[in-house]
Write a structure and sequence with these properties.
With 153 residues, the chain is α+β, with helices and mostly antiparallel strands. Helix content is 41%, strand content 25%. The chain is built from four helices and five strands; from the N terminus they run βααββαββα. A hairpin with a 2-residue loop joins strand 4 and strand 5 (123-131). The chain is globular and about 45 Å long.
Length: 153
């Protein structure tokens, strides 16, 4: 059973430091809403977040712009969305041993089950989804914990 949790969103400055802040934010969201997520998938998720945020900073912002990072977690899946103000869509570059950059979307495609882009009124959303196997007893415990937290609010 998939129990969707409340998505969390933060705003980040369009500066190089935003990638580290995005990773830290993602780790806190996972610790709170998906504590049974395997450590290797947390690392994969943070790498995907870092790549998407870095791409948004390089190609989707001008000085002074901000980004939005949305993290949606369930018992066996995570969706990351990075919102930026530029409509130009990202495109993977061909693999090359000669380049020192331009591999971010190849990394995202390798780690995520799916990724893509959506338009928004002022800019775009680049998203990725990662999944992991959750043993049935952990999924039930997560669902019960989420229900308990929602009733305590």
């Amino acid at each position: 059973m998939r129990t969707s949790l409340v998505p969390t969103t933060t705003t980040l400055p369009g500066t190089p430091r935003a990638a580290a802040a995005a990773r830290a934010y993602t780790r806190r969201a996972v610790a709170r809403h998906a504590p049974a997520m395997p450590m290797d998938r947390i690392d994969d998720l943070c790498l995907v977040v870092s790549e998407l945020v870095t791409n948004a900073i390089r190609y989707g912002t001008e000085p002074g712009d901000k980004l939005a990072l949305k993290v949606v977690l369930s018992a066996d899946r995570a969706r990351i969305e990075v919102h930026d103000p530029v409509r130009r869509r990202p495109r993977p570059r061909p693999e090359s041993c000669d380049r020192t950059s331009g591999r971010g979307l190849l990394v995202v495609a390798a780690l995520a089950e799916s990724w893509g882009t959506d338009d928004r009124p002022l800019g775009k959303i680049v998203w990725a989804e990662l999944a992991w196997a959750t043993p049935p007893n952990q999924a039930i415990a997560q669902r019960d914990a989420a229900l308990t937290r929602s009733h305590q609010r």
